[in-house]
Amino acid sequence: AGVDSIQMNLTGPFGIAIGKFYANKQEFQFYNIFENSTYIGKPDAQSLKRILNMDISFDDFIRIIRGEVLFPIDSYKFIKKLNDDNSLWLSKQDNFGDFVIAEQKYSSISTYQRKIKDDVLVADIQLRNFNKYDEFYLANDINCSFPSNNSSIKLEISELKINQKFDAPFKFPIAKSSTVIKIDE
C-alpha cells in the first residue's frame, strides 16, 4: 500500500502456507504457522535481522521490492556502462558503498550490492523476472543474500496488489492461541 505498509502471505514448497508478514513504518508482525508464534516489533534493521536474519530495514525492503535506490538519486555516481541496457552506479556512504545496476528497459534496478571496508560484500540482491503492474515494471523474483550472516531469502512473488482497496483488514489479527514474542524487549 504505497510505501507505508506491506502484507505478505508466505508459502513454502508445494504451496504450503508457512506464515504471514505485515509491516508499516511503526511496527511489524510475523506469524509463523508451524510454531504458532507471532513476532512483533519495530521495523528497523536490528529487529528484522533478529527475526529474518536480514540486514535491512522496512523502508529499504520496500524500496528494493519497488526496484528503487536506497539513497537520494543524486548521491549515486555513474561508474560504467555494462551493455546497451545496464549501467553500474555507486553511492559512497560513511562506512560502506552501495552499488546498483540500473536496467533501462524496466526503469528499475536489477542488482543491489552493499560492500564495506576492504571490499567485503554484506548484501547481494538480484531482481529478476520483471512484469508490468499498472505503468511500472516490478520484479517477481528477488534473491537476497547476506554473506556476513550466512543467510539468504528468496521471494517469488505470485501476485502483487498495488494501492487497491482491500476486502479484508490489511493488518491480520493475532490469534489468541499464538505465542506473542516482542522483539524489542
Walkthrough of the structure:
With 185 residues, the chain is mainly β. Helices cover 9% and strands 48% of the residues. It has 2 helices and 12 strands, in the order ββββααββββββββ. It has helices at residues 45-52, 58-65, and strands spanning 5-11, 17-24, 28-32, 37-41, 77-81, 86-92, 96-103, 108-116, 120-133, 136-146, 151-156, 179-182. The strands form 2 sheets. A 7-stranded antiparallel β-sheet has the order 5-6-7-8-9-10-11, with no helix packed on it. It has a 5-stranded mixed β-sheet with strand order 1-2-3-4-12, covered by helices on one side. The longest helix is centred in the N-terminal third of the chain and has 8 residues, at 45-52. The radius of gyration is 17 Å and the shape is globular. The relative contact order is 0.17.
List key phrases describing it.
single chain; 185 residues; mainly beta
Task: Briefly characterize the structure.
9% of the residues lie in helices and 48% in strands. It is mainly beta.
Summarize the SSE layout with pairings:
Blueprint: E1 5-11, E2 17-24, E3 28-32, E4 37-41, H1 45-52, H2 58-65, E5 77-81, E6 86-92, E7 96-103, E8 108-116, E9 120-133, E10 136-146, E11 151-156, E12 179-182
Parallel strand pairs: 4-12
Antiparallel strand pairs: 1-2, 2-3, 3-4, 5-6, 6-7, 7-8, 8-9, 9-10, 10-11
